[in-house]
Design goal:
Mean pLDDT: 87
Shape: globular
Number of strands: 12
Strand order of the largest sheet: 9-8-7-10
Radius of gyration: 26 Å
Number of helices: 19
Low-confidence stretches: none
Number of domains: 3
Largest sheet: 4 strands, mixed
Structural class: alpha/beta
Length: 481
């Protein structure tokens, strides 16, 4: 069951909206508009033009403020309505709608289709009902604006949101999922702004995110891991296509940087032609990686295989996913080589069971909970998922699918999901402490400073991950790679 506060972030506007209120021409007498409002047992009516597009709204509050004792009953609706109408799309995330309502003091928010025609209504008291005042304040801080500066402020507000959600009892894995989804929303908004500046593209494209973003497991310090799938086009259009996509990709990555996502140090970004290809070229690249198993191919595969479409037609990404599964099935040695690389990542426990010091040049014992905790689990789960054709990219979803298919026992999958929760929670709380102290959020956690029960739980989680990683590596080690 979804926690009430989480529904603000995982839910869509369509799930919370009421039916469309009465729709009336702007010339309708106010008396008729108020009568229609009363007859429908609604608190608002919407004025629409001849094409059915919303052009104004009259609420009960407007009647009290602008109509009562001021305007005659025969005055037109247009003389009292609020215009233009603030609205939101039905498929928008609910937290954006809540943020918009709070930012502008709205009691009603119209839900419209792509042509601006009313499809429903949000009412504030119903939409806010499940959330605490503290959570609503965190939502308000997220709705910072519709440009890169506003998106950067939204990114900065995520720490406060994450702390609030954790304090309200939401599991760390779900909080991380919320943070990740907001990051994806920012990517979508940035694409729209970049397109508005560049104009129509010569061919359709799909934006992919990869790595932790593709798994829905981004924390508070994600960089950019993205790429573009371009629709296949004739060779004769190559110069024209490059002339548009090269500056567009540069602008897209620069806008994402301005929005709070640092440039990828490994250059896994759309502006790098390695990550900006037609669908046919992507397929050929994946086949080449699978055949050659070079160190670069293994590195790229470790990042790229968690890809997820976030803007544009998802069909090319689905087709690429199918091709990836077929290529890996035809070249199982690639997964064997990837397993050998992933086995080099070990959990952060010493031979005697103490926490490993991943920063020995400083006092204290600090363990990198990302590389020495989460990543061995993430990587081992990915290997099994790719071997068994699981299309999901999130670690939790992969474990659930593997439990259904049989490679992982249900009890083991549950235990590993709990280990992920324990490790991710400790890492997220450390990042929140870093932010509160004015430090960049990192991945090193001073585990011996935690309460003894928490240390014991993290140690148990690491041992479970280590055993799982060893078992997965062993299952790939029986063949000749």
């Amino acid at each position: 069951m979804t926690a009430p506060g989480l529904a603000l972030f995982t839910g869509r506007v369509a799930a919370a909206m009421r039916p469309v209120p009465p729709l009336l021409p702007p010339a309708t007498p106010i008396a008729e508009a108020v009568a229609a409002m009363r007859a429908a047992d609604e608190t608002a009516v919407v004025a629409v033009d001849a094409a059915g597009r919303a052009v104004g709204i009259l609420t009960e509050r407007d009647v009290l403020r602008r109509v009562a004792f001021r305007l005659p009953a025969e005055a037109p609706l247009a003389s009292a309505m609020s215009a233009p109408v603030r609205s939101v799309a039905a498929d928008e995330h609910l937290y954006r709608a809540v943020g918009l309502m709070r930012a502008h003091g709205l009691r009603h928010l119209l839900v419209v289709d792509g042509e601006g025609r009313p499809r429903g209504m949000l009412r504030r008291f119903e939409t806010y009902a499940a959330a605490s005042a503290r959570l609503l304040a965190a939502v308000e801080r997220l709705a910072s604006g519709e440009d890169e500066a506003g998106f950067a402020a939204t990114r900065a507000a995520q720490a406060g949101l994450a702390r609030t959600l954790l304090d309200e009892g939401l599991p760390a894995a779900e909080v991380i999922g919320v943070v990740s989804e907001i990051n994806l929303d920012i990517h979508r908004w940035v694409v729209e702004r970049a397109l508005a500046a560049a104009g129509p593209p010569p061919v359709p494209f799909t934006l992919l995110v990869m790595g932790s973003a593709g798994r829905g497991e981004s924390m508070l310090a994600p960089d950019q891991d993205n790429g573009l799938i371009l629709q296949d086009y004739p060779d004769a259009r190559h110069a024209e296509t490059d002339a548009w996509f090269i500056p567009f990709a540069e602008d897209l990555n620069a806008r994402l940087q301005a929005a709070g996502f640092p440039l990828c140090k490994g250059h896994v970004m759309a502006r790098n032609p390695v990550w900006r290809k037609t669908l046919a070229q992507w397929k050929a690249q994946i086949t080449l990686w699978a055949e050659r198993r070079s160190p670069v191919a293994l590195l790229f595969g470790d990042i790229a295989f968690d890809f997820k479409p976030v803007w544009g037609d998802p069909a090319p990404a689905d087709e690429l996913r199918g091709h990836l599964m077929r290529a890996l099935a035809a070249h199982p040695a690639f997964l064997g080589a990837l397993a050998a690389e992933d086995a080099k990542m070990t959990v952060g426990l010493s031979f005697w069971g103490g926490f490993r010091d991943d920063e020995p040049d400083r006092p204290g014992v600090r363990t990198d909970l990302k590389r020495s905790g989460l990543m061995p689990l993430v990587s081992a789960t990915r290997l099994l998922a790719l071997r068994h054709g699981v299309a999901a990219t999130g670690t939790g979803a992969r474990l659930a699918a593997l439990a259904d298919l049989g490679p992982v026992a249900p009890a083991e999958a549950q235990g590993l999901a709990e280990a992920f929760e324990r490790l991710a929670g400790a890492l997220l709380r450390q990042q929140l402490d870093d932010v509160a102290a004015g430090r960049p959020p990192g991945t090193l956690v001073e585990l011996p400073a935690l309460p003894k029960p928490e240390q014991a739980a993290i140690r148990a989680a690491m041992k479970r991950v280590a055993a799982f990683q060893k078992g997965v590596a062993s299952s790939f080690g029986g063949g000749v790679w």
